[in-house]
């Protein structure tokens, strides 16, 4: 009995001790949480993007490093995905519910499926938008009027040219008509300079090559691509003057060098930077890409002249993409904080200096690069800008995008460059993927 009583007493003592220790531990943890100097819990954020240019990646590297220095408990993993596979990667991540905390989008159309799936945070009224001109939010607003991304720059598409190459070929003025553009190509070729650098080995560049023309020609029918994608219209309807876009693509294709489909984007940039090639048709990030090969390259930019009316030549610009925060993230507050930091005036300057993009921060100047000074002088200040924020010049469905590219390749590979045949094949390919409105079973 005495041994059993001793055991009971010991158990009671241990229980009391354990209870006291639990109470002490709870108080200690509470005090630690309440302590101003307490160490914050570790947070890891994952950020996906598709930037390939060195300056854009440096902008992200500088920004995330500075943010982590100010927030020692936060680690940011920045993952770069190839532009050709970026959309597929996000689709696959969404399918297995592994979407990143932050990701980039180029437009509200691409983002819509992720909005519907709950992977895009409603940023309407969020402090991360503080200071952004409401007029610049149209490209990230859904049809519901909600803001789904935080924009950071204005992009443009047009022609990027090497001034030294133009001078060598005796071209004094930039071409402002389609006939003048072809004449410039002939002069460049006669001077031993490749007129156009095309990096079609990276297939996204073919889509961008036609975008300046696609926008200028089709913006008066802003829903034509959306209508074709939905089966409400066909390529044969030619609502966006697409046949003429294809004819001009075929007309300038002979000036893209001996092996445009064996040339990748970086090689095309290097050709332009060195002056071996004179022009690239693409987006404003081309400036950053060229600078990564030759920082002092004498390059400029001009509007693609899709007609012979010089007065209609305007530089196409938009504000449509931006940072997207995943509301299902375990660290959504920290993700918003990081996005807000990247929207600051400090990071706007870093972006312009490195990414060579036009910041949408208030009073941002365009004197950070001579190419942008020309854009500002010749187009922005002169009111010769074509805003295409409400016009998305690409298809969204991945299968349709692939079919579209395949038929463009077929057109360029056809010695006759038969545009009518290409249009018929585009409609047939699209009809195999999605039904035409009004068709049986559609």
Automatic annotation (TrEMBL):
InterPro entries xref list: Bact_solute-bd_prot1, SBP, SBP_1_CS
Record-annotated membrane-spanning stretches: none
Keyword entries, A-Z: Signal, Transport
BP GO annotations: transmembrane transport
Domain of life: Bacteria
Magnesium in keyword set: no
The keyword S-adenosyl-L-methionine appears for this protein: no
Pfam families the record matches: SBP_bac_1 (PF01547)
PANTHER family given in the database record: ARABINOSE-BINDING PROTEIN-RELATED (PTHR43649), BLR3389 PROTEIN (PTHR43649:SF14)
Family, similarity comment: Belongs to the bacterial solute-binding protein 1 family.
Protein name: Extracellular solute-binding protein
Organism: Cohnella ginsengisoli
Taxonomic classification: Bacteria, Bacillati, Bacillota, Bacilli, Bacillales
């Amino acid at each position: 009995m005495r041994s059993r009583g001793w055991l009971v007493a010991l158990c009671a003592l241990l229980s009391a001790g354990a209870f006291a220790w639990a109470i002490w531990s709870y108080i200690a943890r509470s005090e630690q949480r309440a302590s101003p100097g307490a160490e914050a819990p570790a947070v890891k954020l994952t950020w996906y993007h598709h930037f390939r240019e060195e300056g854009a990646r440096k902008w992200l590297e500088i920004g995330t490093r500075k943010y982590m220095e100010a927030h020692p408990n936060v680690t940011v993993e920045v993952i770069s995905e190839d532009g050709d596979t970026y959309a597929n990667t996000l689709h696959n991540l969404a399918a297995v519910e592994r979407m990143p905390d932050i990701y980039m989008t180029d437009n509200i159309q691409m983002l819509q499926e992720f909005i519907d799936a709950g992977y895009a945070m409603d940023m309407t009224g969020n402090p991360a938008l503080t200071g952004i001109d409401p007029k610049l939010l149209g490209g990230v607003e859904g049809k519901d009027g909600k803001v789904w991304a935080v924009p950071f720059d204005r992009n443009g598409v047009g022609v990027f040219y090497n001034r030294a190459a133009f001078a060598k070929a005796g071209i004094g003025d930039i071409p402002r008509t389609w006939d003048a553009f072809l004449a410039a190509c002939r002069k460049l070729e006669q001077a031993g300079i490749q007129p156009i650098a095309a990096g079609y080995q990276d297939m996204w560049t073919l889509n961008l090559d036609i975008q300046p023309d696609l926008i200028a020609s089709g913006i008066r029918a802003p829903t034509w691509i959306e209508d074709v994608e939905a089966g409400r219209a066909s390529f044969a309807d030619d609502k966006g003057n697409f046949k003429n876009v294809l004819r001009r693509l075929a007309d300038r294709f002979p000036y893209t060098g001996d092996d445009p489909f064996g040339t990748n984007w970086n090689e095309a940039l290097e050709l332009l930077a060195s002056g071996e090639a004179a022009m690239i048709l693409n987006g404003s990030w081309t400036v950053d890409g060229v600078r990564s090969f030759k920082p002092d390259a004498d390059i400029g930019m001009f509007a693609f002249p899709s007609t012979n009316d010089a007065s209609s030549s305007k530089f196409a610009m938009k504000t449509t993409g931006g940072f997207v925060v995943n509301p299902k993230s375990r660290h959504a507050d920290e993700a918003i904080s990081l996005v807000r930091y990247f929207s600051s005036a400090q990071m706007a300057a870093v972006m312009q200096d490195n990414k060579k993009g036009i910041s949408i921060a208030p009073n941002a100047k365009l004197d950070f690069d001579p190419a942008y000074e020309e854009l500002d002088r010749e187009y922005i200040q002169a009111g010769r800008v074509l805003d295409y924020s409400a016009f998305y010049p690409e298809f969204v469905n991945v299968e349709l995008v692939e079919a579209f590219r395949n038929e463009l390749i077929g057109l360029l590979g056809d010695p006759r460059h038969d545009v009518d045949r290409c249009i018929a094949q585009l409609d047939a390919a699209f009809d195999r993927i999605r039904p035409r409105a009004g068709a049986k079973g559609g």
